[in-house]
Amino acid sequence: MKQAVVIGAGPAGLMAAEMLAAAGLRVTVCDAKPSVGRKFLMAGKSGLNLTKAEPIAPFMAAYAEAESALKPIISAFDSNAVQAWANDLGQAVFTGSTGRVFPKAMKASPLLRAWLVRLGQAGVHFNTTWLWQGWHESALVFETPQGEQTLYPDVTVLALGGASWARLGATGDWASHLRAKGVDLTDFAPANAGISVAWSDHMIRHFGAALKGIALTSGPYVSRGEAAISKRGLEGGGVYSVSRGVREGHPLTLDMLPDLSVPEITARLSKPRGKASLKDHLRKTLKMPPAQIALMQEMARPLPDGLRALARLIKELPIKHAGLRPMDEAISTAGGIPFSVLDNGLMIRDLPGVFAAGEMLDWEAPTGGYLISACLATGRWAGEHAAGWALRD
Fold it and tell me: For residues 47 and 95, is the Cβ–Cβ distance under 8 A?
């Protein structure tokens, strides 16, 4: 039997292993951690958003510059296919009001357990605590508790993730091994990241507060959603969706009341105030919660006296910040292996028989089902083409 090695046991690596085994190869999956799927399980703590049920055109638009490279790959394993795959594993799914698809169990562990059972039945073997050290001539070299180990596969699929959440295994250290082989890479950058803010003491009482029904804008990136005030800054899906704009150097602004216009806000503020404080007036006339009023005072104190100027500020509050949170805290990363060094089957052209998948590839997308969906699709694509390459004789 032809031998295949998959390095990395996240969703992309496991999907590649499944395709290789289905094609009749003897498959070994190696992972540096003591157990598999650690970042996958972490994602499941917030519900495991597997994919998004929407037409292919808006779905693909979420991948920005990588849309054309990823379109055939994701079209071959689209949102409907992801849902069918989960159902085949005995994990029923449901679609939320925004189109996001989740397992009914709302966590990753049942799905991962069922998947590992199926892989085991297909003959896939797992080597955990095997840290990849690159190549020695034609051999894959691993640091293991039993000392250095080498493998000589007929084909290899790399699925080692990006460069965030290093404690879960995605360290990005693999980049040095590929660069040593002459592979050109794009530098890593944080994606879907929080915003660093050095708060004054006045904001301490609002740590943990949610900012609901807001809109955020940074350059061409606009988000309607929620954010949360944390000790370190601003977090949440609404923030992550525009973090790329912050990374690119665009200003960040927040619309407190996106469903109201400046004249409508001005009209409401024009109601008699009496002896009420401005804080109470904002709360009564606009139903603004204390955390939003505090944020506005934090970012723009002293507030303007004119009602129209105040309304404009509510609609376009500039957020003073210190950039994105560190890359290791980001949900995902941009950068990695550019599609220009890969063939149509995701094989690295300068390394025949070596394929790559998942977050190792240079693409990024917002949260909302796009990340895991693309990891599964690229893992499947790489696995199928790796099997075809190994069996080409």
Answer: no
- Range 230-258 average pLDDT: 96
DSSP 175: H
Measuring CA to CA, which residue among 153, 25, 45 is closest to residue 108?
45
**Cα separation values, 390 from 140, 229, 378, Å:** 16, 51, 18
User: What token pair was written down for 391?
Assistant: 């069996």
Q: How far apart are the first and last CA of the chain?
A: 13
User: pLDDT value at position 358?
Assistant: 98
Q: What is the pLDDT of residue 43?
A: 86
Q: Tokens for 204, please give them.
A: 């301490």
Taking alpha carbons only, the member of 222, 216, 219, 165 closest to residue 188 is: 165
Percentage with pLDDT > 70 across the chain: 100
Angle between helices 307-315 and 290-300 (to 10 degrees): 100
Mean pLDDT, residues 135-159 taken together = 97
Q: How far apart are CA 132 and CA 121, in angstroms?
A: 26
Residue 16 φ/ψ, nearest 5 degrees? -60, -40
Q: Which residue has the tokens 């210190």?
A: 322
Distance CA 318, CA 369 (A): 29
Q: Assess whether the previous peptide bond of 302 is cis (omega < 30° from 0).
A: yes
To the question of pTM greater than 0.85 for the whole model, the response is yes
pLDDT tier for residue 44 given thresholds of 50, 70 and 90: confident
Average of pLDDT values for 100-120?
96
Percent helix, percent strand, percent coil in the chain, to nearest 5: 40, 25, 35
CB contact at 8 A, 358 and 161:
yes
CA pair distance 54, 42, nearest whole angstrom: 25
Q: How high is the pLDDT of residue 305?
A: 87
